[in-house]
Amino acid sequence: MNTSFVERRPNGRPETHDIRQYTRGYSEGEFKRLQLQGDFVRDLTEDVLRRAGLKQGMHVLDLGCGVGDVSLLAGQLVGPSGSVLGIDRSQDAVEAAERRAVEAGQCYWVRFTSADLASFVPERKFDAIIGRLVLMYLPEPAETLRRLAGFLRPAGIVAFQEMSMPYARSLPPTPLFTQALSWIIRAFARTGFETDMGGKLFSTYLAAGLPIPQMISGARVEGGAESPGYEYMAQTVRSLIPALERMGITTAADIGIDDLADRRRDEAVAHEACIMFPPMTGAWTRLPQ
Ligand SMILES: C[S@@+](CC[C@H](N)C(=O)[O-])C[C@H]1O[C@@H](n2cnc3c(N)ncnc32)[C@H](O)[C@@H]1O
Fold first, then answer.
1. Buried/exposed 87-120: b ≥16 CB within 10 Å, e otherwise
2. Are 90 and 84 in contact (CB under 8 A)?
3. 90 CB under 6 A from ligand 1?
4. Which numbered atom of ligand 1 lies nearest the CA of 69?
């Protein structure tokens, strides 16, 4: 199977991606989609980070930081007496995250660097290693966690939040929602990415040699004409179009991507349907003293 596709970077240059590395190539649209997603689940992530024990003065490593949503959230919790280092292999994402840290007034203690998690070697020890929606992309998440946990101080925190895509649903079921969810899950599954990483967090922590984690799961449940959920789902489908077309699953024209959000809104309103978005499961633990 040919797993590469070409997408235009924010600077206008075409870039070839391998869908096994990351289903969504980075584009301006993907930055916006990640921010929309970040806003959508922000309170769920903040809850997990607080439960995990992030607090003022801590030094935190954020794995697969994307455009910085989790890093900036952690930056608020640790404050200027602490620090956050976000790492991502996309240089474009790191640059966008740096700009956002400046805008947020956090650039003195929230920093970013571009690196691959498989080989990244930090220059310091951390009080916490965190991440959201990143373990699902790793070929060996337990091995990566085990290696990077070696850069934690005694009693260091490991806190991750991951999705369980197959458990999203519309109540009552509606055809366009079911179709769009199927496109999303098929695109991910065909790449070998884990669509239920939330359900695998417990076993992954244990396989990484970490202490048994505490866990919690939560999902946004949305309905009505004003929900941002239709746009979020449509943007997710849009970001997967290069992969969907390359895999022969469907095309932008067949999807009708330009008005997908509007049609989803109309469908949900007409059926008085609410959407349970994919549960986001958080897991956190501490190393021994
Ligand atoms: C869905 S995004 C999540 C971004 C961010 N954690 C958030 O929740 O907003 C996944 C990110 O993981 C990064 N990523 C995936 N595999 C990686 C690897 N092996 N090394 C570094 N970054 C990786 C991707 O580049 C992408 O930015």
1. bbbbebbbebbbebbeeeebeebbbbebbebeeb
2. no
3. yes
4. 9
Single-letter amino acid code for the residue at 95? E
Out of 39, 89, 145, 193, give the residue to mutate to test ligand 1, the one with the largest number of ligand atoms within 8 Å of its CB.
Answer: 89
Where would I find the H helices in the chain?
28-52, 69-78, 91-103, 141-149, 175-191, 197-207, 229-246, 252-255, 260-271
CB atoms within 10 A of CB 6: 11
* 3 state SS of 191: helix
- For residue 24, the model assigns a pLDDT of 47
The residue among 283, 274, 67, 29 whose CA lies nearest residue 161 is 283
| Ordered domains of the chain (ranges, CATH) | 4-286 (3.40.50.150)
Mean pLDDT, range 237-247, rounded to an integer: 92
Q: Is the CB of 188 under 6 A from ligand 1?
A: no
**Average pLDDT score, the chain:** 91
Helix 260-271 vs helix 229-246: crossing angle, to nearest 10: 130
The one-letter amino acid at 53: G
